[in-house]
Amino acid sequence: MNAVTNVGCVTRPILPRSCPPSRNLRKSSKMNIRLAKPEDLPHIQAANLQNLPENYSMKFWMYHILSWPQISFVAEDNKGRIVGYVLARVDAEEEDDTGTRKDFDKEPEIHGHVNSISVLRSYRRLGLARKLMLLSQEAMSTIYKSSFVSLHVRKSNKAAISLYRDSLGFRVDKVEHKYYGDGEDALSMRLDLPKQSI
Ligand SMILES: CC(C)(COP(=O)(O)OP(=O)(O)OC[C@H]1O[C@@H](n2cnc3c(N)ncnc32)[C@H](O)[C@@H]1OP(=O)(O)O)[C@@H](O)C(=O)NCCC(=O)NCCS
């Protein structure tokens, strides 16, 4: 048998006329990604509870959206239901945990930090997380002049590590032992952002 005849329609980059679009292609074409708004927060929080063991208070979510309104995004389906989000903040490298500058001679290095990202299970592998990350990274760079973006990920989270490392180009900066409440190590990952001329 000629092996070429076994090539499935779904995996082809360009679909032949006789081949119906895959479910994923149909789904992804109806998705909309936009900036997150305070009124989205209950839905973002619900998605977070469904997808991740790291959960936060409404105050935490609200603080991020109000403080850095241009770097958190949501993905919504054709009925406007939120199916994914990225929540991020901006930090200054030279500050310690209390927000105090460590070295007054040096300009603080501004950087973005991704606090939480998730996509509902039935909307995964459509490229939504990658798009959410790219939009947030672009805004961190162009609006806040961030020089890099950082995040933490569980050592066992293969899907997220592949998203950050293989799809977006992050590298592992360090391993933080027992970072998570249950004792799991975190990979602290980082991606340099393009320098913006002022
Ligand atoms: C991790 C997560 C956000 C990825 O969302 P997604 O929308 O499915 O990701 P995308 O479709 O944008 O995938 C982009 C790339 O990431 C990688 N990736 C995503 N899911 C993957 C999986 N299950 N296995 C391996 N690689 C995966 C692939 O490189 C993929 O590119 P490809 O589809 O061309 O191969 C999603 O699985 C999720 O919500 N998981 C639970 C919450 C979570 O772990 N959040 C991260 C906390 S640090």
UniProtKB/TrEMBL annotation:
<protein>
    <submittedName>
        <fullName>N-acetyltransferase domain-containing protein</fullName>
    </submittedName>
</protein>
<keyword id="KW-0808">Transferase</keyword>
<dbReference type="GO" id="GO:0031415">
    <property type="term" value="C:NatA complex"/>
</dbReference>
<keyword id="KW-0012">Acyltransferase</keyword>
<dbReference type="GO" id="GO:1990190">
    <property type="term" value="F:protein-N-terminal-glutamate acetyltransferase activity"/>
</dbReference>
<dbReference type="InterPro" id="IPR016181">
    <property type="entry name" value="Acyl_CoA_acyltransferase"/>
</dbReference>
<dbReference type="InterPro" id="IPR000182">
    <property type="entry name" value="GNAT_dom"/>
</dbReference>
<feature type="domain" description="N-acetyltransferase">
    <location>
        <begin position="31"/>
        <end position="194"/>
    </location>
</feature>
<dbReference type="GO" id="GO:1990189">
    <property type="term" value="F:protein N-terminal-serine acetyltransferase activity"/>
</dbReference>
<dbReference type="InterPro" id="IPR045047">
    <property type="entry name" value="Ard1-like"/>
</dbReference>
<comment type="similarity">
    <text>Belongs to the acetyltransferase family. ARD1 subfamily.</text>
</comment>
<dbReference type="Pfam" id="PF00583">
    <property type="entry name" value="Acetyltransf_1"/>
</dbReference>
